[in-house]
Automatic annotation (TrEMBL):
<feature type="binding site">
    <location>
        <position position="107"/>
    </location>
    <ligand>
        <name>Mg(2+)</name>
    </ligand>
</feature>
<dbReference type="InterPro" id="IPR000760">
    <property type="entry name" value="Inositol_monophosphatase-like"/>
</dbReference>
<keyword id="KW-0378">Hydrolase</keyword>
<feature type="binding site">
    <location>
        <position position="110"/>
    </location>
    <ligand>
        <name>Mg(2+)</name>
    </ligand>
</feature>
<dbReference type="Pfam" id="PF00459">
    <property type="entry name" value="Inositol_P"/>
</dbReference>
<dbReference type="InterPro" id="IPR020550">
    <property type="entry name" value="Inositol_monophosphatase_CS"/>
</dbReference>
<dbReference type="GO" id="GO:0006020">
    <property type="term" value="P:inositol metabolic process"/>
</dbReference>
<dbReference type="GO" id="GO:0046872">
    <property type="term" value="F:metal ion binding"/>
</dbReference>
<feature type="binding site">
    <location>
        <position position="79"/>
    </location>
    <ligand>
        <name>Mg(2+)</name>
    </ligand>
</feature>
<feature type="binding site">
    <location>
        <position position="233"/>
    </location>
    <ligand>
        <name>Mg(2+)</name>
    </ligand>
</feature>
<dbReference type="GO" id="GO:0007165">
    <property type="term" value="P:signal transduction"/>
</dbReference>
<keyword id="KW-0460">Magnesium</keyword>
<protein>
    <recommendedName>
        <fullName>inositol-phosphate phosphatase</fullName>
        <ecNumber>3.1.3.25</ecNumber>
    </recommendedName>
</protein>
<dbReference type="GO" id="GO:0008934">
    <property type="term" value="F:inositol monophosphate 1-phosphatase activity"/>
</dbReference>
<keyword id="KW-0479">Metal-binding</keyword>
<dbReference type="GO" id="GO:0046854">
    <property type="term" value="P:phosphatidylinositol phosphate biosynthetic process"/>
</dbReference>
Length: 291
């Protein structure tokens, strides 16, 4: 069943958050396109699937400074300075959500390996959240010159143009996105790809969780499945997905605004099919109906 309606947030705060987040996203897009492909490489101790760049640190510090000035008292969490090895994602999220009524979550360069290689597929992602999930979300897609933005109850926009998903029912010839984990392929990924391709559905690993979810919100991909992720990877894009009309489900098929363990974002008419392929691939037979 769908999750309970989230509480309404003061409109002035939402409007100001959208304005500031949009400005930060535009700034970040310029920096990313100006500096990508400079030949940096991960240190020997860093995973090539999840590592840090100077650009990421600089953008996150800038984001933190601006948000501290504009929204004093609202904590900011980000990829470059808040990762906590040794704790589970659920534990980290619980600690953040209990710290204040609102919080910001930023991923300054989502798709770092692509960024370093100069591949035009990475993003800047920023969200303001409360206990119910994203309130405001902005994702910058620098190489396509797009800023995607959404706020709870106000819909999604791409460069100011409203976006709303159509009622897609057909899976054949569709595209599903997924991503590697920090250590590589997730358990069952090969079987998931086999299940999807058997249904004549293409699977893409593009290297940016935020942009993978954004493609669903935009109607380009019919679904995105993420087995492992951090809050800052997905929070901004989940705001887009929810406001475009996409279904947001956890690993068990439950509707939730911000899943902390397994994530499926899909056009509502195909969510059951994709959930079935995913459940089969991981051996999970407990998935519930998305209806």
């Amino acid at each position: 069943m769908p999750s309970e309606p989230a509480q309404r947030v003061e409109p002035g705060l939402v409007s100001r958050a959208l304005e500031i987040a949009g400005r930060l996203a535009n700034d970040a897009a310029d920096v990313i396109t100006d500096t990508a492909g400079r030949g940096a490489r991960p240190a020997a101790t860093e995973s090539p699937f999840d590592w840090v760049t100077d650009t990421g640190r600089i953008l996150e510090r800038h984001t933190r400074r601006v948000l501290a000035d504009e929204f004093p008292g609202i904590p900011v969490f980000g990829e470059e300075f808040d990762s906590s090895p040794g704790t589970t994602v659920a534990e980290q999220w619980a600690a953040r959500s209990s710290s204040a009524r609102f919080r910001w979550s930023v991923d300054p360069v989502d798709g770092t390996a692509n960024y370093v290689a100069g591949l035009p597929w990475c993003a800047y992602s920023l969200a303001m959240l409360d206990e119910h999930g994203p309130v405001v979300g902005v994702v910058a897609d620098p190489y396509r010159g797009q800023i995607y933005a959404a706020a709870r109850g106000r819909g999604m926009r791409a460069n100011g143009t409203p976006v709303r998903l159509s009622d897609q029912q057909e899976t054949r010839a569709g595209i599903v996105c997924t991503e590697l984990t920090r250590t590589g392929a997730w358990c069952g990924m090969d079987r998931f790809i086999t299940n999807a391709t058997a249904a004549q559905v293409g699977v893409r690993l593009l290297g940016s969780p935020a942009l993978a979810i954004a493609q669903v919100a935009l109607g380009h991909a019919m679904a995105a499945v993420l087995d492992s992720y951090e809050e800052w990877d997905v929070a901004g894009a989940l705001a887009l997905a929810a406001e475009s009309g996409a279904a947001v489900l956890d690993r068990q098929g439950r509707h939730t605004a911000l899943p902390s363990d397994g994530l499926l974002v899909a056009a509502p008419g195909v969510a059951d099919n994709v959930l079935h392929w995913w459940s089969q691939s991981t051996g999970d037979r407990t998935s519930e109906s998305t209806g």
